[in-house]
Design goal:
N-terminal domain of TfIIb; Rossmann fold; binds iron/sulfur cluster; six-stranded mixed beta barrel; single chain; 5 domains; binds ligand MGD; alpha/beta; binds molybdenum atom; 741 residues
Length: 741
C-alpha cells in the first residue's frame, strides 16, 4: 500500500511534446502526449503553420516503432548459430578492421555503399558525405536510382544544379497536372506539403482544376476534376505531343522566361514526330483529349505540371522528367507564382552541395552512367557477383533495404549473401540486413532531435522546424550521425592534413555535435543571423543586405522557442539568381535528351493483344518496405494483391481473390488477384515492399500478418531508362496465370 502511494506520489502529469513526423515528406507537426516515458496519444498539431493539424494513419506508428520489440537496441554480430549482441567497441573495431583490410587489398573499387530512403529523413544526412569519403567507396548507390534520379539529372542539365527542384506552388495555382504521383497515398513527394490533399482541394475550391494522368484510377484521381488513363511507360509521348500541339497552335507562351532559354527551334523540330494523332494509340489517350489538355494548360493563368515516381521509374524516365520541365517552361510557369517554383529553404543545400555531374564514371560490367559519383542501383548486384578487378567485396548499407526495393530482388539477395563483408546501419534484421556481418542500430527516432534537412529544397511553402528528442537516449546508444561520425574517424586515412581539409561543417558536427552543425547552417542560411557562407553569384548588394539583416534571424535557439515551426512565407521567384548553367540560360534541346528520341520512336507502336505490364502502388498505411511490423498499420484486408481489369481477368480465367502467378523475365510471384475497373486493361498493379517471408527475417508482425510477395522479385535489373540508368519499376512486361488449385 505504502509502495503504491509512494509510486503515485512521484508520478508526473501527462506532458505534451511537439514534433515533426519524419516518416514521409509531408513533415506533419504532431503532438505527442506522454507520461513517465509512455506515449499516451499522437495527434496532429493544429498550431503547426505548415501542416495545420493534418496527419495520416502512420503517425501512430511513431509509438509502435519506438516500442517495437524487434527494433534493435544493441549492435549485432552474425555468428554460425544466429545473431549475438556485442559491444559498440567490438562492433566498431571489427567493422574498421574488415573494411580497412579489403580496402587495402583491392582498393576503393571493391567497397560499395548503399544509402536508403530514411537516410534523407534524418539530419544525419549531414554526416553522410564525409563518411562516404572516408570509407573510400568507389561503388556508390542509393534509393535515388529507384526513385527521383531522372528529375535530378533534368535539374542539373537544365538549371545547373541537381537540387534545384521546381515544386508546385499548390496554394496559388489554377491548374495542377499530376503525372504518375498519388499524393492521396504518399502524402506528396518532391513536394513537401503538410496537408497535401487539403491544399489540392483548395485548388478546386478556388475554381481551379486538377487533372491526374495515371494507369490506375487512384485515390488522388478520385478527388480530381479529371483522370486520364495512360498506358504504363508512355508519358513521354503524351507530354511531347502536348508540346507539339502548343507549338503548332501558337500556344507557347514563355512569359518572363523569354530571355532565359535557348534551343527553342531545335526543340520544336525534335518533338515534331509526336503529335496527338501519332501518340494516341501508344498512350491509350484519344487525340482530342490530348489537344484539349494541351490547350487548357497553355491557357490557364497559372499551371503547375508535376510528375513523380510513376513518371521517373519507367522506360523513358529521363525523357519524361525532361519534358515535365519543358512543358512548365513552354507555358511560362517555371519560377512563377502558381507554377513550379524553387523553395527558399532555411538550410541552403543548393549553396552547400555539389551541382552534380553526369556520366563522369561508368559502371564496370554494364557501362551505365554514374550521376554525381553514384551508379544506378540496377547494377549493384552484378557488380558484386561478376568476378574481376573492381568487383565489390564489401558493402555498407545505411537505412536501406535493396532486397525489397530494387529490381530483381532475388538476385540482390543472392549477391548480398556472397559478400565477403557487409555492415548495415539499420534498426531491423530484415530482408537485406540479415546478410550483414554486423548491424549497427541507431536510437529510436524519438530519442534524437529532428530536422528535415534533405527535404528543405522541396517545400511548397517556406518554413522551418526543429524538434528536440522526446526521450533521453538509453545509456551507451548512438544516433545515426554518431555511428557515421565514429566510422568516419576510424576509416579516414591517418593523414592529418587530409583530415583538416575535410569540410568545415563536418568538423563542427564531429567535434561539437549535429545540432551545432544545424545551428551553423541556419545562422548562415537565407534567414540567418550571420553573413552567408561564401556563395557563387552573391552580389555585393546581397552581401550588404545580409550584413544588415536583423539580429533575430533564424537560429537553433529561435526554433527551440517555436516548437510548432515558423512560417517563412510563400515561394518566391528566384530563377535569375539561381540558374547555375552556362550563360545563365536554360538549354532546351540538349543532345543528352534528343539522342534518346530515336529509341522512343521505335516504341511508338500500339499495344499488342494480351500484353500485360505491371505497375506499382502505395497505400497510406504502409511505407516502402519497412513499416509492416506495426499491427495497427497492417491489420485489415490483405493489401498485397495483384489488381487486374475485369476484361483481362475474364480472358485469363481469373476470379476475384483467386491466387495468381505473375511472371516476368527474372522470376515469378504469387498473390491474390483483385479484379477492379480502377486499372486500365493491360495493366497489373502490385504494391512494392512486401515479401517478408524470407528466412531469417526478424519482423514478427510483418511475417505473420503481412508477408506478401515482393514486386521487385519480378522487376528486371536489365530494364533501365537509357539516359539515367534508373530502374524501370513501372511497365515491366509480365504474364499472369491462375494458380492450379
Ligand atoms: N517496384 C517498386 N520498387 C520501389 C518503388 C516503387 O515504387 N516500386 N519505390 C522506390 C522508392 S521511391 C524508394 S525511396 C525505395 C526505398 O528503398 P530503400 O531505402 O532501400 O528501402 P526502405 O524500404 O525505405 O527501407 C528503409 C530501411 O531503413 C531502415 N530504417 C528505418 N529508419 C531508420 C533510421 O532512422 N536509421 C537507420 N539507420 N535505418 C532506418 C529500415 O529498417 C529499412 O531497412 O524503394 C524503391 N523501390
Ligand atoms: N503511404 C506511403 N507514403 C509514402 C511512401 C510509401 O511507401 N507509402 N513512400 C514515400 C516515397 S519513398 C516516395 S518516393 C513517395 C512517392 O510518391 P508518389 O509518386 O506520389 O507515390 P506512388 O503512389 O508511388 O505514385 C506513383 C503513381 O504512378 C502511377 N504510375 C505507374 N506507372 C505509371 C506510368 O507509366 N505513367 C503514369 N503517368 N503513372 C504511372 C501509379 O499508378 C501511382 O499512382 O511516397 C512517399 N510516401
Ligand atoms: S503524412 Fe503521415 S507519415 Fe507523412 S509526415 Fe504526416 S503523419 Fe507522418
Ligand atoms: Mo522514394
Amino acid at each position: 500500500m505504502i509502495g503504491t502511494l509512494a509510486k503515485e506520489a512521484v508520478m508526473s502529469q501527462p506532458a505534451q511534446h511537439f514534433r515533426i513526423c519524419h516518416l514521409c515528406e509531408a513533415m506533419c507537426g504532431v503532438v505527442i502526449e506522454h507520461q513517465d516515458g509512455e506515449i499516451l496519444s499522437i495527434k496532429g498539431d493544429k498550431a503547426d503553420p505548415f501542416s495545420r493539424g493534418h496527419i495520416c494513419p502512420k503517425a501512430v506508428a511513431l509509438k509502435d516503432l519506438h516500442e517495437d520489440p524487434d527494433r534493435l537496441r544493441r549492435p549485432m554480430k552474425r555468428v554460425a548459430t544466429g545473431w549475438v549482441e556485442v559491444s559498440w567497441e567490438e562492433a566498431f573495431d571489427e567493422v574498421e578492421k574488415n573494411l580497412k583490410r579489403i580496402r587495402q587489398q583491392t582498393g576503393g573499387d571493391s567497397i560499395g555503399v548503399y544509402l536508403g530512403n530514411p537516410t534523407v529523413h534524418t539530419p544525419a544526412l549531414l554526416a553522410v558525405p564525409a563518411f562516404v569519403h572516408a570509407l573510400g567507396a568507389r561503388q556508390r548507390f542509393s534509393a535515388t536510382s529507384v526513385d527521383q534520379l531522372p528529375t535530378m539529372v533534368a535539374n542539373q542539365q537544365l538549371f545547373g544544379h541537381q537540387l534545384l527542384f521546381p515544386v508546385p506552388d499548390l496554394d496559388r495555382t489554377d491548374f495542377l497536372l499530376i503525372v504518375g504521383g498519388n499524393p492521396a497515398a504518399s502524402n506528396g513527394s518532391l513536394m513537401s506539403a503538410g496537408d497535401v490533399m487539403g491544399r489540392i482541394k483548395g485548388i478546386r475550391d478556388r475554381g481551379g482544376r486538377v487533372v491526374v494522368v495515371d494507369p490506375r484510377l487512384t485515390e488522388t484521381a478520385l478527388k480530381a476534376d479529371d483522370h486520364v488513363f495512360i498506358r504504363p511507360g508512355t508519358d513521354f509521348f503524351l507530354l511531347a505531343a502536348m508540346a507539339s500541339e502548343m507549338f503548332d497552335r501558337g500556344l507557347v507562351r514563355l512569359r518572363d522566361l523569354e530571355h532565359h532559354v535557348e534551343g527553342l527551334v531545335e526543340l520544336q523540330q525534335a518533338l515534331a514526330p509526336f503529335t496527338p494523332d501519332t501518340v494516341a494509340e501508344v498512350t491509350g489517350v484519344a487525340a482530342e483529349r490530348i489537344r484539349t489538355l494541351a490547350a487548357d494548360i497553355a491557357m490557364a493563368e497559372r499551371a503547375a505540371i508535376y510528375g513523380r515516381v510513376g513518371a521517373c521509374t519507367q522506360e523513358f524516365g529521363g525523357l519524361t522528367a525532361w519534358m515535365l520541365h519543358i512543358l512548365n517552361i513552354l507555358t511560362g510557369n517555371l519560377d512563377r507564382e502558381g507554377g513550379m517554383m524553387f523553395a527558399t529553404p532555411p538550410l541552403d543545400l543548393v549553396g552547400l552541395g555539389s551541382p552534380g555531374s553526369y556520366g563522369k564514371q561508368r559502371s564496370r560490367v554494364r557501362q551505365l552512367p554514374a550521376f554525381s559519383g553514384e551508379l544506378p542501383v540496377s547494377v549493384m548486384a552484378e557488380e558484386i557477383l561478376t568476378p574481376g578487378e573492381g568487383q565489390i567485396r564489401a558493402l555498407v548499407t545505411h537505412a536501406g533495404n535493396p532486397v525489397l526495393s530494387t529490381p530483381n530482388g532475388k538476385q540482390m539477395d543472392h549477391a548480398l549473401a556472397s559478400l565477403e563483408f557487409m555492415v548495415s546501419i539499420d534498426i531491423y534484421i530484415n530482408e537485406t540486413t540479415r546478410h550483414a556481418h554486423f548491424i549497427l542500430p541507431p536510437v529510436s527516432p524519438l530519442e534524437r532531435s529532428h530536422m528535415e534537412v534533405g527535404l528543405s529544397p522541396l517545400m511548397v511553402r517556406n518554413a522551418a522546424k526543429w524538434s528536440p528528442a522526446l526521450f533521453e537516449a538509453p545509456e551507451d546508444s548512438r544516433q545515426d550521425w554518431q555511428i557515421l561520425s565514429e566510422l568516419t574517424q576510424r576509416l579516414s586515412s591517418t593523414n592529418a592534413v587530409q583530415r583538416v581539409a575535410r569540410r568545415g561543417l563536418q568538423l563542427v558536427v564531429d567535434q561539437l555535435g549535429l545540432d551545432t552543425g544545424l545551428d551553423l547552417l541556419l545562422r548562415t542560411g537565407p534567414y540567418g543571423t550571420h553573413a552567408t557562407l561564401s556563395k557563387k553569384g552573391s552580389t555585393p548588394v546581397q552581401k550588404l543586405l545580409t550584413m544588415v539583416r536583423p539580429k533575430d534571424g533564424l537560429s537553433l535557439k529561435k526554433l527551440r522557442e517555436n516548437p510548432h515551426g515558423i512560417d517563412l512565407g510563400p515561394l518566391r521567384r528566384q530563377l535569375r539568381s539561381r540558374l547555375e548553367t552556362k550563360r545563365r540560360r536554360i538549354p532546351l534541346a540538349l543532345p543528352l535528351y534528343l539522342d534518346d528520341i530515336p529509341r522512343a520512336l521505335e516504341r511508338l507502336q500500339p499495344r499488342q493483344p494480351g500484353e500485360l505490364r505491371v505497375i506499382g502502388r502505395r497505400h497510406v498505411r504502409s511505407n516502402n518496405s519497412w513499416m509492416h511490423n506495426s499491427h495497427r498499420l497492417v491489420k485489415g484486408p490483405n493489401r498485397c494483391t495483384a489488381m487486374l481489369h475485369p476484361d483481362d481477368a475474364a480472358l485469363l480465367g481469373i476470379a476475384n481473390g483467386m491466387s495468381v502467378r505473375v511472371q516476368s523475365r527474372v522470376g515469378a510471384i504469387e498473390l491474390p488477384a483483385e479484379i477492379t475497373e480502377s486499372v486500365m486493361p493491360g495493366v497489373v498493379c502490385v504494391p512494392h515492399g512486401f515479401g517478408h517471408a524470407r528466412a531469417g527475417v526478424q519482423l514478427r508482425v510483418a511475417r505473420k500478418e503481412a508477408a506478401g510477395a515482393s514486386l521487385n522479385d519480378i522487376t528486371d535489373e536489365r530494364f533501365v531508362d537509357a539516359i539515367t540508368g534508373t530502374a524501370v519499376l513501372n511497365g515491366v512486361s509480365v504474364r499472369v496465370a491462375p494458380m492450379a488449385s
